[in-house]
Fold this sequence. Notes:
Oligomer: single chain
CATH class of the largest domain: Mainly Beta
Order of helices and strands: HEHHEHEHEHEEEHHEEEEEHEEEEE
Number of helices: 9
Strand content: 25-35%
Number of domains: 2
Helix content: 25-40%
Shape: globular
CATH architecture of the largest domain: Sandwich
Largest sheet: 11 strands, antiparallel
Number of strands: 17
Distance between the termini: 30 Å
Amino acid sequence: MKPEDLAEGLNTILAHSPVFPDKCLIIDVVANPKAGGFSRIHHSKKRMRELKEMVSRSLELPLRKAPLSLKMHLTERCGHAATIVQRILEHSPSNGKDSYHIIITAGGDGTSLETAEQLTLLPESEKDRFGLVRLPFGTGNDGSEGRDLFVALERFLNPAILERKPALKITPSYEGGALPRYSFNIASIGLDAYVAEMTNRLKRHFPGDSYKFWVDIGTMFYDRVYKVVNMGLRAWNRGRLVLDSELPRLLVAMGASGNRYYGSHKSILPNEHNCIAISQTSLFRKLILKGSIENGKHEHIRELTHFTADRLQIDYHESIPLQCDGETTLLAKCDFPLEMERLQNAYNVLVSV
Length: 353
């Protein structure tokens, strides 16, 4: 599939869409032509079959009467989606009364992350003019609105509303000078972030999903690459301190909610709790436990702690990797204490009613 095929299919689907039937519908599509859904034959053919089926379903509906416009934007580099979306938001003709402006992403987690971040950074008075739909065109698609186009595009074939969703704000210490980062699925530091970084490095040269491979490698070598020392971890939920500990930890992860997936649908947060912390253990124990943790079977693992929190404060005295929705960076000593905060009602997503 090519981006032009997606644009043609979306034009047909939206021409029959009952979404906001009495309002002008403004659609901007931000697509990464190098994403797996376009560039990898298996994924591309699958997305094309799904798109054709959704076009066929849409033709059974009457034509919408309200005006519709659609424009396709192609990203050319890392960070380009953020620039495109910022320009879209600044020049949007929507006024929130007689029109709705929907931004559709067709790329991987990076494209989705950059787009959602721009929507989150909007002034509160501007947020309800815009909504987001993330199509699954990456290889992982853990942050998209469904893992196939049947689920993601079905919302355009039914009445829908804009619904506010939570996000995570990750703020390094002011002393380090680093800017805050955002996450819309799962943010983590430690082993999980190391696996994400190595997966991304390999993907640049050999496109595909190597997350499982790097989980196996990372389990054995992470603490040879990064020094694992005591980590101070404090957690609050609704203003109440729920955790205060200092242990050598392999990873700490926080989700925008519980029941979240990461790393090509690995059940990192398998229940209603939105946080986990895993303490350091022997290599033998890691090899035994990695499969259970990866598959969300966390019961009776003494090294693993589940909890619910809307704010974390992490103190650490060594370098450690951070990942936000698969995008990684290296934290230095000066970036601590690090705060992770859950922001309620951060941005709008189009959902069926």
